[in-house]
Design goal:
249 residues; mainly alpha; 41% helix; 0% strand; elongated
Length: 249
């Protein structure tokens, strides 16, 4: 295939090299893919791009011969979604980089944030329920109001606990497809706040179980749904999210 006139005097965009390194990582998981390796492949990859080849096509053109038999390149069986990998921020056309330099897809970044948001909601409403449970209203009207608010807080805590589990599951699915992204933690833990209780690290956050709904309060209950967040990550108690309805009023 000949060189395209429109690309003959141009360098490949940074996104092209980012996609190539991601395809190569999936195709050859034990291969070293640092900056030096990619620099050595640059003349070949640039020629493929100038000939009209996509990143996938360029990766498929890499060697897959063991010296005795010729087999298809492993890259032929790999499919990456659109913008599944991003180049380093500010990377110029023609610059190459290693696997450690590429950025994870925006969908994965959003999924991490979604997990953190759900976890903070769950902790926020659990804290409200704790405060209401420890309160001692002096009048019947105040006790009735407390029971209603406590029920609402339990319901919200249970709902968000389940949401944490579902969002972590989605995040793990996305992470499994992006082998070049961070693997140590699903969600980076924020810096601890002063006077916050330390809950440790890991993926075993479990909102507290609530007692049964008292008789005479609104329908429903929140005691059984709180067990759905056993895989969420423990973090220090955050401040109250500004967008949440205030069940304390």
């Amino acid at each position: 295939m000949g060189i395209w006139n429109s690309r003959a005097d141009k360098e490949p965009p940074a996104a092209f090299f980012a996609e190539v390194v991601a395809y190569l990582d999936r195709s050859y998981p034990r291969a070293a893919l640092d900056r030096d390796v990619m620099e050595s492949l640059k003349p070949f990859l640039a020629r493929e791009w100038r000939s009209g080849q996509s990143a996938h096509d360029a990766a498929k053109a890499t060697c897959a011969c063991d010296g005795l038999s010729i087999v298809p390149s492993p890259a032929t069986a790999i499919e990456l979604g659109r913008r599944a990998v991003r180049p380093p921020k500010g990377a110029a056309r023609g610059s190459v980089f290693g696997l450690a330099d590429v950025r994870e897809p925006a969908t994965l970044v959003k999924a991490r944030v979604d997990v953190e948001v759900a976890r903070r909601h769950a902790e926020h409403y659990t804290a409200i329920a704790d405060k209401l449970e420890s309160a001692s209203p002096k009048t019947e009207r105040a006790r009735s109001s407390r029971e209603v608010k406590l029920f609402q807080a339990r319901q919200e805590a249970a709902k968000w606990a389940l949401e944490v589990t579902e969002r972590i599951s989605k995040l793990r699915d996305l992470t499994a497809l992006a082998t070049w992204t961070q693997r140590d933690e699903l969600v980076p833990k924020p810096a601890p706040r002063r006077r916050a209780k330390s809950k440790g690290a890991g993926l075993d956050y479990t909102p507290r179980a609530f007692p049964a709904r008292p008789a005479g309060s609104p329908d429903g209950g929140g005691s059984s749904a709180t067990g759905g967040a056993s895989e969420a990550t423990a973090v220090a108690k955050p401040s109250k999210p500004s967008c949440l309805p205030n069940v304390m009023d």
